[in-house]
Amino acid sequence: MTIFCGFLVLAPTMSSSADGIIRRWVDAFWTASAKLREMDPKHIKVVYLRVLICYAIFGCFALMLNPSNLIKYATMFFNVALGISCWHTMAINTTLLPKPLRPHLVIRGLMILAGAYFFMLGTLAVLKTTGLLDKLTS
After folding, report:
1. Domain containing 92: what range?
2. Residue ranges for the chain with pLDDT beneath 70
3. Alpha carbon distance 31, 43 (integer Å)
């Protein structure tokens, strides 16, 4: 009964989380790739399916890791992803939005700085975890 209750709690949470991640990445690919934008919109399901398959394969590999290492790796790569997301948001807001809706220059600068901070934080964490930081600094 405990396993069944755990499934009832985790299954909807995981499916909504996966849906959010997949939609975010497909939207990023869609806005970044001219080839995808040329594609007939009714065939976008193929892109969603491919991203879902990659996400599932990654999830299967992640299950093989030690849980504490999984948390370390997730936080490292989420920092890198957050930095890239800041820059991507800036690029989209300054190119696709009409001029009256574009963010102020101060906001643009802060987004660029925030992106640099999180990207560098993630990069340094990856270099430290892999031991490359010690090799580069010695």
Report:
1. 66-130
2. none
3. 16
